[in-house]
Amino acid sequence: MSTLLIKSGGAAGFVEWQRHFAELAPGLTTLFWDDATDADYALVWDPEPGRLAAMPSLRCIFGAGAGVDGITRDPDWPRHIPLVRMTPAGAAQRMAEYVGWAALHLIRGGRRMALQQARAAWEDFEHPSAPDIRVGIMGLGVMGARVAQVLRAMGFPVMGWSRSAKGMPGIAEFHGDAGLAAMLAQTDMLICLLPATAATRRILSAPLLAQLPRSAMLINAARGWHQELPDILAALDSGQLSQAVLDVFDPEPLPAESPAWAHPKLTVTPHVASLPSRRERAAFVAQQIAVLESGGTPAPLYDPEHGY
Ligand code: NDP
Ligand code: OXD
């Protein structure tokens, strides 16, 4: 009988995980992180450094999210053990719904209307329509590819930047530093869906924002790692950015004293862009364990060479 050690959602979350795994993988024994030190599998978001390396029986690590930076920032995480990124089908769909909402919120002036409502002010204003707004997506991976399809279906002209070519119908693709510069120069709404790697740290900072057309809009649903928040606030104040929606911050939670909370051109959401239910995530893990135990390779795997 295989064992799965879980650190995601604390003791209350564990009770729910246990219920789902009992139905979805009856042969699997689930263990709470605080009660055991070894298992065949681990399902974790941000394990204490060194804990995974000290598990002699460990055969596979499951990230509790699609981004596994909370695991790989442990200098001792066991790189020889497969690390599976949490990507049930519902994850990309939820991300596309979030970004679709954020894109409409931006073009329809959602933040402005919320502020007007707070002072009972009935003030109408003109707004652009999706075909007027050229979208540039940084990252066309599991999340970015679905977002690109959905925004295109909503009527936005969509461009995307990635390391490798995708051949996505109707999406203009860009690669490399020159490709990024070319995309930024024609991007009215920039969306960040990059992984947290050495190459992408603080990429959303003043030099990049200056390459966008004036009054561009920004959505970051990837990681706080990608953004230099003071530069984004300064760009909003100067008019280089007209509005932004940020779902992620560094640190999280966003400190109560951050000027981001009250900025009139910024919408803050609390890292909720894509959170598949525990049931969906348990089903994904159960399915991947079945693949492993029948001699297959789980997917998608974190690639230590690329860092995502
Ligand atoms: P993937 O690893 O599937 O995709 C990453 C994309 O970025 C790929 O297209 C990759 O190119 C591209 N990329 C990586 N490095 C570079 C580079 N240096 N230059 C150009 N392109 C690059 O990631 P996901 O789609 O699963 O996740 C995207 C982000 O969203 C992550 O940061 C993740 O943590 C975050 N996330 C946030 C959530 C939230 O609720 N806020 C929920 C889920 C994810 P290529 O395809 O060529 O490899
Ligand atoms: C994830 C997240 O990476 O929720 O899945 O941020």
In CATH, the architecture of the largest domain is: 3-Layer(aba) Sandwich
Largest sheet, strands/sense/barrel: 7 strands, parallel
**Which CATH class of the largest domain is shown?**
Alpha Beta
**Strand neighbour order, sheet with most strands:** 8-7-6-9-10-11-12
Output the radius of gyration. 21 Å
Number of strands: 12
- Mean pLDDT, to the nearest integer, reads 98
- Taking pLDDT < 50 over at least 5 consecutive residues as the criterion, the unreliable ranges are none
What does this protein structure show overall?
The protein is α/β, with parallel strands linked by helices. The chain has two domains: 3-89 and 276-293, NAD(P)-binding Rossmann-like Domain (Rossmann fold, 3-Layer(aba) Sandwich); 91-268, NAD(P)-binding Rossmann-like Domain (Rossmann fold, 3-Layer(aba) Sandwich). The protein has nine helices and twelve strands. Helix 1 crosses helix 9 (278-293) and helix 3 (89-107) packs across helix 5. The relative contact order is 0.14. The structure holds NADPH dihydro-nicotinamide-adenine-dinucleotide phosphate and oxalic acid. Residues 65-67, 86, 274-275 line the site of oxalic acid.
